[in-house]
Design goal:
By secondary structure, the chain is mainly beta. The chain has one domain: Methylamine Dehydrogenase, Chain H, CATH 2.130.10.10. Helices cover 6% and strands 41% of the residues. It has two helices and 34 strands. It has helices at residues 8-14, 28-43, and strands at residues 20-23, 66-67, 77-82, 92-94, 97-101, 106-111, 117-122, 133-134, 138-142, 147-152, 158-163, 173-175, 178-182, 187-192, 198-203, 213-215, 218-222, 227-232, 238-243, 253-255, 258-262, 268-272, 277-282, 296-298, 301-305, 310-315, 321-326, 336-338, 341-345, 350-355, 361-366, 376-378, 381-385, 390-394. It has a five-stranded antiparallel beta sheet, with no helix packed on it. A five-stranded mixed beta sheet has the order 2-28-29-30-31, with no helix packed on it. Strand 16 (213-215) and strand 17 form a beta hairpin. The longest helix is centred in the N-terminal third of the chain and has 16 residues, at 28-43. It is globular, with a radius of gyration of 19 Å.
Amino acid sequence: MIPSHGDTDTRRKSCLRYLRVSVTPWPVAVALILASAMTPLVGQAPHSAPAHEWRQFRGSPQLRGVSSSPFPSTPKLLWTYESGDPIDSSAAISGGVVYVGAGTGDLLALDLASGKLLWKYATGNLIGESSPAVGTDTVFVGDLGGLVHAVSLRDGKPLWTFKTGAEIKSSPVLINDVVLIGSYDTHLYALDARSGKLRWKVATKGQVHATPAVQDGLAFVAGCDAVFRAIRVADGTEAYHVESGAYTGASPVLDNGRAYFGTFNYEVLAVDLKQRRIEWRYSDPESRFPYYSSAALDSGRLIVGGRDKLVHAIDAGTGRRLWTFATRARVDSSPVVAGGRVFVGSTDGRLYMLDAASGKKIWEFEIGAGVTASPAIAAGRLVIGAQDGRVYVFG
């Protein structure tokens, strides 16, 4: 569980100022080759997910939450799939297949066009908020038993597992041949994507709930110890850190030399990555509620859900409020932007489509059960799971 706000001061006092890094022995030359090969590829990552794919949580390693896919102005429900238990995991889409973790502990592969089950992989534990990441021939996901799973895309057969020390709610991020993922055992892990062997792990002083965002060879992660960290993907060493002043369950979004994320201290922060300081803080003067949702960033607008039942749009340059939209319950779902529209779920049981510029509601669909998972949009389809155990696909 994310600790209550009252624990913030205690966690900050106990947090280490510097990281302890454990690195498995491997030749320095290999590490240098990996670093030089990795940095250009990561730096060239697109700002939005391509139109035909949504391969990981938030669509890209920068966690932008933006899709290039066209989407109908009046969506229709195309199909549903009954998984059995509530779905907190957000879907991935690749090659015409939907990959999603069900609350039962099954990783599902569903045909995007028809909803037909292609295969089912049983993790042996429950799956929480960890969302699949899709590689060339492998899909990765974490479970609440603390296991990271690598599964064959072709037939759903297990390739390897890696055991961490506690539950995993962080989503894996695949960078070249490295899988990055956080665990509630307080570590951020880097695993070899082919073998599952540990490359390195970094210890913090709080659960690593958030998904790391990656850019220019650095993994950025905010955690429950109120510290925002930049970690070198090549070897797990700390480049720098910034004290955020509050723990967070939200994942950061990266753009134009800044990182943005919400905290349990009722604020959304902008961190200047060059100056290594907090650039601005946004808070709602009329309410004091945590931000659990991870933000989307498009056209200079930062869009994030709050536990105050609102969707907030913030000017990314200044931290000024642009608009808010009121739902009927908290918004833990992370918004996705596509074609100038915002798509987001709420625990009020509805999926919303809003105009990104004004916040005006364009469309809503009443699912009837809470929605905490985040949308995935690709190939003209939107995929989202709900607390009724169903996967919903719109187009």
